[in-house]
Amino acid sequence: MTPDRLARLPKAELHCHLEGTASPALVQRQAARHGVDVSDILADGAYRRGDFQTFLRAYDRASALFRTEEDYAELTRTYLAAIAAEGAFHAELFVSPDHARAAGLAPRTYIGAVAAGAARAEADHGIVCRLIVVGVRHFGVAAVEAAARFAAEPGLPRVSGFGLAGDETVGRPADFARAFAIAGEAGLGLTAHAGEFAGPDAVRETLDALKPSRLGHGVRAVEDRELLRRIAAEGVVLEVCPGSNLALGVYPSPAAHPLRRLVEAGCRVTVNSDDPPFFATSLAAEYAFARDRQGLAESVLAGFTRTAIEAAFVDKDTRRMLEERFVAALLALGSGPGSD
Ligand code: ADE
Ligand code: ZN
């Protein structure tokens, strides 16, 4: 598979935090505009590397620099345009009403601005975008339930899912069952970060208590054969983010990452960028990781995109349209049996 074929491979993203897409240069500009010192999170034009808690603090500090509707519309448009140029035709972005509020923006105004940026990217580049409202685990159970009630409000443009993000070591999955029930009853798709830092027990408890159709990361499930069998049998989709896992030290080397083992165990897998500039990655780089560092064939990479479309939080007609675009893009690539 040549670099050119990888560039033209149709791609989709299910796991990306909107505020986590801000480039260091943009954060530096916003900081200068608001007179904020960000030398604690940026060095030499890049995000400083650190552990998970350090990352979460940097994420909160950078997010607080995006304060207006224009800021959010432009952040959204810019990211979607960038991944469309990498071959993506569908993206789901995590949006956080708590981060918007902390930056001084009412959540409904924030969603409206993000949706406006998504509409512009869709018009300019054809990329479809949906929004997943997240509750942030380390902000507490009440905040996560408030985020779920907000997500369940009618008339939020492009919002089609609810998720749980933040520090997985805080609280137990069952603490968030009510939030997930509220969101599920409102017809939203459900996803939860689990098995990113915590081990297989946390993944099992998350599946039991929150009943998400997708798991953010889920990679540490690989440590438990019985759990892997369950994930494969139940068709739970894993939103795997290798670059994030490597940057945050979950795995010591590219070869140690379990992406290939998850695929071989029969799990339904997608690849995603999480917070790309924080982890010096991109959606295309994640697909390239799968090919170059894990030795996965082009057909497997195409399967990630197919799985993302199957698991997307979209209505029936949109899914059919995405499937048609996926098949057309593969045909244009001349992809089929033997093209590995
Ligand atoms: N919020 C932003 N990025 C995150 C991650 N990788 N895990 C949990 N919460 C997050
Ligand atoms: Zn994430």
From TrEMBL:
Its cofactor is Zn(2+). Zn(2+) binds at H15, H17, H193, D274. Keywords: Hydrolase, Metal-binding, Nucleotide metabolism, Zinc. The record marks H217 as: Important for catalytic activity. Its EC number is 3.5.4.2. InterPro entries: A_deaminase_dom (IPR001365), ADE (IPR028892), Ado/ade_deaminase (IPR006330), Metal_Hydrolase (IPR032466). GO terms for molecular function: adenine deaminase activity; zinc ion binding. It catalyses: adenine + H2O + H(+) = hypoxanthine + NH4(+). It holds the Pfam family A_deaminase. The active site is at E196. Residues 10-325 form the Adenosine deaminase domain. The keyword Zinc applies. Binds 1 zinc ion per subunit. Substrate binds at D275. GO terms for biological process: adenine catabolic process; hypoxanthine salvage; nucleotide metabolic process. Belongs to the metallo-dependent hydrolases superfamily. Adenosine and AMP deaminases family. Adenine deaminase type 2 subfamily. NCBIfam families: aden_deam, PRK09358.1-3. Catalyzes the hydrolytic deamination of adenine to hypoxanthine. Plays an important role in the purine salvage pathway and in nitrogen catabolism. This is Adenine deaminase. It comes from Aureimonas endophytica. The lineage of its organism: Bacteria, Pseudomonadati, Pseudomonadota, Alphaproteobacteria, Hyphomicrobiales.
